[in-house]
Amino acid sequence: MRTVVQRVTEASVKVPAEGYESKIGHGLLVLAAFIDEDTEEDLEWTAKKIAAMRIFDDEDGVMNLSVKDVDGEVLAVSQFTLYASTVKGNRPSYIKAAKPDVAIPLYEKFIRRLEEHLGKPVGRGIFGADMKVGLLNDGPVTIIVDSKLKF
Q: CATH number of the domain that 115 lies in?
């Protein structure tokens, strides 16, 4: 499982064709992608890591607080393109990304895990939809969390 975590002042995802919108204020925008080999352990490790990651400033201006500590919000959006391979040619290959029949249940379980660790609902996009994502990156702080790169 691979995620891009962005500390934001605000973020939103819209699906104009369905009249859908989800938005948050201060918190994290999490772009998430999955591969066929992802397990429950990958979902749990990643959700726990994101909820506890100390990337918000404390009273001294030091990144020492988690999204949970600052009562921030989280918006999780599926983005299979995080597994793009650009090794050959100019057209990225997405062959490594899980197909919807595998990725959708993983995405839903990941959101549930995040909600359990945060103790509150998580905003979300619509898997496979043409989404318009907006954000105001705070810092900027952008971190990649990949469950297959646990050192």
A: 3.50.80.10
